[in-house]
Amino acid sequence: MVFSSTVFLFLFLPAVLALYYIPRTGREYKNTVLLSASLAFYAWGEPAFVFVMLGFVLINWFAGLKIGAAQTHGAKKAWLTAAVALDIALIVVFKYLGFLSFNFLKLFGREAFALKIALPIGISFFTFQIMSYVFDVYYGHAAVQRRPDRLALYISMFPQLIAGPIVRYETVAREIGERRENREDFCEGMARFITGLAKKVLIANYAGLCADNVFSLEPRLIAVGTAWLGAVAYMVQIYFDFSGYSDMAIGLGRMFGFRFDENFDYPYVARSATEFWRRWHMSLSGWFRDYVYIPLGGNRGGTAKTIRNLFAVWLLTGVWHGANWTFVLWGLYWFVLLVTEKQTGLAKCPNAFGHVTTLLLVLFGWVLFRSESIGACGAFLGAMFGAGSGQWADTLTAYLSGGSAFALIAGAVFAFPVVPKLKERFGAHPAVRGIVLAVLFAVSAMLCVKSTYNPFIYFNF
Predict the structure, then answer these.
(1) How many angstroms separate the CA atoms of 289 and 300, rounded?
(2) How many CB atoms lie within 10 A of CB 408?
(3) Which residues contact 177 (CB under 8 A, 6 or more apart)?
(4) Which residues are catalytic?
(5) Region 144-157: what's the mean pLDDT?
(6) Cβ-based burial of 259 (10 A; exposed 0-12, middle 13-18, buried ≥19)
(7) How many CB atoms lie within 10 A of CB 409?
(8) Residue 250 CA: distances (Å) to CA of 47, 67, 124, 165, 256
């Protein structure tokens, strides 16, 4: 089930809200409704994997108890290490064992085949969340959660279960037991949800159709203009798809009394690679910074150790996204860019030059991220620079441009902080805002009903 489906919009969400807001019900009742709904949400597509997720919860709940009860630092560290090792082992089995077995056999000249292991949706997200719990208990950032049902609620909460943002335990620990819902938060949450839905349905889906059409072509037959159009369309799609989902998740959380951290801050306005990653998928960047980079020593051990630590972070970032060499290379691509900036001072380039250069580097990175193999990426990049059909443009370029014009133009406009400016201008006119939101929801809902194309990119991770 996805947020932009008719089942979610017109059946699941209204039913959950109706049950949740029954008058004069207490916190335990509300938590039970939310936990039950979250498990049902996950089981909708993958019933068996609910037990995998709950297994993760119980393992780390027990480890948290042991960390909290340990009398020595060594004992605490031993339980933390055991929990994290088991979490990583489980995600390796589900997500990477097929990839590792294939490459291992290929390395030794054997007949290579990939093990087919079904991947639990959102495993990368909920694994990082459960690890954040044991880390926060270990570092003293949060108290031990003695009730497994409350820890299960934190992990399985349906607004952020499938594709984030990665919500740290310390940010919602108190709200699980003590949050207070109110009309203002509910209305703001609903507005945020509608905004995210519109970003997803009105922009990301149409840009995605264009990108899919182009990337499915044989690179040697693609005109230069078509290749660039496909790359730009994917650049628009992945931002509005993922940020739209994050908006919906943050909005839903607020409707139920939770305040999740922001996940995007207009990353395409960035003037350097460093700034881009301060604005893109901020919950993932912050997770790696606080739980990997800083524990490794951060930038405190000199240049060589700083580079080593950055290498570890970006190698893991690439691997986290998927079991494919393209993701590994994508992570290392950003490692090289970031280290180069740090060592040369390129992050301080003039605004216009830095902005254009950063957008191009991000665009090339997304081509690698989208490609099915490193070879396919090379061929597509070649088509972008004339190694395809040799034509600058053809009839397909014109056809796809016409079909995706609205999505690409809207993407180019709203990738910049236009909405905050509009809120500032019309914030004193709630009626205007209400009408705009109502129209956006009505149009988005109609498209959800009639459209069969409705992917979420980050569901694969």
Answers:
(1) 13
(2) 22
(3) 27, 31, 150
(4) 321
(5) 93
(6) middle
(7) 12
(8) 25, 31, 19, 8, 10
**Across 49-69, average pLDDT:** 92
Is the distance from CB of 144 to CB of 65 less than 8 angstroms?
Answer: yes
Residue 451: what pLDDT? Answer: 72
pLDDT at 381: 95
Mean per-residue pLDDT over the chain, rounded: 89
The pLDDT value recorded for residue 459 is 62
Choice between 353 and 280, residue whose per-residue pLDDT is larger: 280
Furthest-apart CA pair in the chain: how many Å?
A: 72
Instruction: Give the integer Cα–Cα distance in Å for 239 and 207.
Output: 10
Angle of the 123-138 helix axis to the 49-69 helix axis, nearest 10? 10
Question: How far is C-alpha 136 from the geometric centre of its chain's CA atoms?
Answer: 21
- The secondary element (H helix, E strand) that includes residue 40 is helix 27-43
Q: Which residue has the tokens 């009309």?
A: 183
Name the token pair of 444.
Answer: 């988005």
Look at the block and give the residue holding tokens 């991220």: 369
> What gap in Å lies between CA 272 and CA 357, rounded to an integer?
8
Asked, as a colleague might, if the bond just before 417 is cis with ω within 30 of 0, I would say no
Where does 97-223 have alpha helices with state H?
97-107, 123-138, 148-156, 158-161, 169-178, 183-198, 205-215
What pLDDT shows up at residue 124?
87
Residue 428 confidence (pLDDT): 62
Structure tokens at 309: 């630590």
Sign of CA dihedral 421, 423, 429, 435: positive
Q: Is the pTM of this model over 0.85?
A: yes
